[in-house]
Amino acid sequence: MLWFPFTLHFVREAGGFFEIFDMLEQKELPIIQKTYDLIQWYIPRLNKLPRDYKFLLGDRIQSGLYGLLEALIRARYCSDKVPILEGLNAELEVLRYQTRLCLDFKLLDVRRYQHVSGLINEVGENLGAWLRQQRKKQ
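Above: the chain's sequence. Below: its structure in token form.
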């Protein structure tokens, strides 16, 4: 088995072929994976926004998404998670309003808005569950 640290992938020979698998996907918290999936879906669409919106609204949404992912990863390793998770709850609400602005400005059609709202809500449900679990620990 070969390990490539710069990609976080492992390569294993399997019957004359090489099989690539990601060790992170097996142990990742669901909220982190859902946030990652949200970013993968949303960023390409934000990059296609008209210039008038791309560099203000689009950049703010992108920064918020990356900040959300980074904070979730940091919270995973932090001993006192509650303050971090409460702050992320507010950030997620800001993201919801920014996404709704994309719909109101006709930057997203209704179908895409419904899809991305569903992804955001999944992250929110996971965040709420994690927050409730951490509050019980205190």
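The longest helix spans residues 110-137.
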